[in-house]
Amino acid sequence: MPSRTFLTTILLGLVALCCAACVGSSPTPLAPALRGSIGVPHHGVITDAVELPRQGEGYRLLRSNGVRWGTAGLVAAVQRAAAEVARARPGGEPLLVGDLSARFGGATRGHRSHRTGRDADLLLYALTPDGRPARSPGFIEFGPDGLARIDDSGDAERRASPPGAQEYVRLDVERTWLLVKSLVRSPDAHVQWLFFARWLEALVIEYARARGEDPELIWYAESVLLQPGDSTAHADHLHLRVACTPDEFLSGCLGGGPYWPWLPAVPQLVAPADSDLAAAILDDLLPGGAAAGSRVAAPDSAL
């Protein structure tokens, strides 16, 4: 006859498999506390998402594909930043906002992340070569000189130009810095990353230093601005990712990068000892003290 220890081991294994299969990274009747931004940005979902309106003060959506949902903090941060830039420099073209997340998160076409409502693509402000505000050229890469070349073949308004004509635009460094500045200082959400090509970051940070901006603010911006190593350089847009709040952390929001020291502290969870975890599971499954024999008594010095 199998020993109780052997049966206990088998039982614990079955319980662990069932829990892993049922809970996963989504809210279920077995894990009702999982709400909001759940999991890591490249493997998760979102509940209670907030929709970013098609247009608002200082911005409009690039696409009408429904991928415009995010956490309340993310949506508010984008709206606030676009409005602040528009008020500081009126008369320019609006910020074009690309994809956020789908209504319930998960995989979306063209993205590895954008799954938990914490990511947003923000296209870059542009100027004509002589310094006038220009309509955003879309996802067009800007070079180290801050210039981007646009072929007229993809734009109905530019097709009236002579065949083969090309147009250049340059990065609006001033408004791009104002956007970064607003996001870094946002009271609505805390920036975890701003993915951006390093040569464009250099232009923006040098501009901020030349303006005499607060060195601590510049340090924050330099910390979160990053050219990713596992995707494109992001020379055609800013990829905003916000951090989990302490409350979101307790509800299933996970990692995705460093948690900067200036952000609110998140709870530090300590895993129970294996013996205590096993005993707790068995006590629930086998009431009446059946699991008492599986408990490991603590030494007197630890009591």
Order of helices and strands: HEEEEEEHEEEEEEHEHHEEHH
Q: What's the overall geometry?
A: elongated
Strand residues, percent: 15-25%
Helix content: 25-40%
Number of strands: 15
Radius of gyration based on Cα positions: 25 Å
Please list the strands of the largest sheet in the order they lie side by side.
8-15-13-14
Residue-averaged pLDDT, rounded?
81
Q: Identify low-pLDDT runs.
A: 1-24, 152-165, 290-303
Euclidean distance between termini CA atoms:
36 Å
Spell out the blueprint of helices and strands:
Layout (H helix, E strand, L loop, with lengths): L3 H20 L13 E4 L2 E4 L3 E2 L3 E2 L2 E3 L7 E2 L1 H17 L6 E3 L21 E5 L2 E2 L5 E2 L12 E5 L14 E6 L1 H12 L6 E5 L2 H13 L4 H10 E2 L10 E6 L3 H5 L23 H12 L18
Parallel strand pairs: 5-7, 13-14
Antiparallel strand pairs: 1-2, 3-6, 4-5, 8-15, 9-10, 9-12, 11-12, 13-15
Helix pairs in contact: 2-3, 3-4, 4-5
Summarize the structure in words.
- The chain has about 300 residues and is of the alpha+beta class.
- About 30% of the residues lie in helices and about 15% in strands.
- The chain contains seven helices and 15 strands.
- The strands form five sheets. Strands 8-15-13-14 form a four-stranded mixed β-sheet.
- A hairpin with a 2-residue loop joins strand 4 and strand 5.
- Helix 2 (about 70-90) crosses helix 3, helix 3 (about 175-185) packs across helix 4 and helix 4 runs antiparallel to helix 5.
- The longest helix has 20 residues, at about 5-25.
- The chain is elongated, with a radius of gyration of 25 Å.
- The relative contact order is 0.13.
